[in-house]
Amino acid sequence: MDLGQSRRGVDMGPSALRYAGLQGRLESLGYTVYDEGNIPVPNPEEAVAGLGRRRRAVAAVCQQIYEKGRHFAEKGDFTLFMGGDHSISIGSVTAVSRPGPIGVIWIDAHADFNTPDTSPTGNIHGMPLAALVGRGAPELTGIGYEGPKLHEVHVVQIGIRSLDPGERTALKRSGIHVYTMRHVDELGMAAVARQAIDRLRHLPHIHVSLDMDSLDPDEAPGVGTAEPGGLSYREAHLLMEILSDSGRIRSMDIVEINPILDTMNRTAELAVGLTSSLLGQRIL
Length: 284
What we know:
By secondary structure, the chain is α/β, with parallel strands linked by helices. The protein has one domain: Ureohydrolase domain (Arginase, Chain A), CATH 3.40.800. The chain contains eleven helices and six strands. It has helices at 13-19, 22-28, 51-75, 89-97, 128-132, 138-141, 165-173, 181-187, 189-199, 233-246, 266-278; strands spanning 79-82, 103-107, 155-160, 177-180, 206-211, 249-255. Strand 3 (155-160), helix 7 and strand 4 (177-180) form a beta-alpha-beta unit. Helix 1 (13-19) crosses helix 11 (266-278), helix 3 (51-75) packs parallel to helix 4 (89-97) and helix 8 (181-187) packs across helix 9 (189-199). The longest helix is centred in the first third of the chain and has 25 residues, at 51-75. The chain starts with 12 loop residues before the first helix and ends in a 6-residue tail after the last helix. The model has no long low-confidence stretch (mean pLDDT 95).
C-alpha cells in the first residue's frame, strides 16, 4: 500500500522482499513459511479526493489486514506483515493485539505520532502509532475493535531522529519511551536493545515494527523519507539479534521499502537479512 504518503513506489515493497528471497532465507532457518499473498489495495489515483477519503481507503485496507492477521495471531503463529507504507501497522498491530496486551518496539527515523491536527503534510504514514494508542481520526482509531490497541507505556521507539513540532510535544507528554539516535550513540545499541526488552518483559508478546528508513541512507537507500544519521548495518543486525535472544518476539512489520529509489534491490536484501537475524540466524 502507498496510500499513506504522496510519493509512489512503496506498494512494490512486498514484491522486492519476495524477489530478495525472504521465504527461502526463513525456510533455511527451519521455518515452514506460508505466503498468504497481498491484500487488495486501491491505487492512490482512486482515493485522492480529499484527506477524509484517503483516510477511509487506508482504514478499509487496514481492516482487511486485521481480519486476516488476527487468525494467525490467535493460532500463535509468527506473523510477518510486508508493506507498503507504515500505515499498514494500524491493521497489523491491531491484529496481533486482539488476543491480549502486547508490547511494541517501533524502529524508525520518525515517531509516526502525528494526528490530522498536528501533521504538516496530512500523510497518514506519519500517524499509525498515534492511531494505535487511540489518538487521531476515528476512521483510523476504530480499526478492528473499539478502544486503544496499545498502552503508551508498552511502546518503545528506537532510532528516532526527525520529529514534527506538534508531534514532538505530544510524544514528550506521552508514556512512550523513546531512544533517539543520540541515545544509540551515547549508550550503544546493545544497551538500548536490552533496556527496550526489559521495559516490555512483563508482556507475553512483543511486536517489532521495522521501518527501513531507521537505517542510514548509505545502508538503505530505497526508502521514501530518508533521514541522514541513522542506524548502521551492524547496529541494526545487533538490535535484531538481541531482540531474538529474548525469545519474546511473536510478530513483525517490514515497511517503507521503495524499489524505485533503491540500488539493485539493496534495501530489500538488507531487510531480508535483518528479518533472518530476528528469527534466529547467527554468525556462529
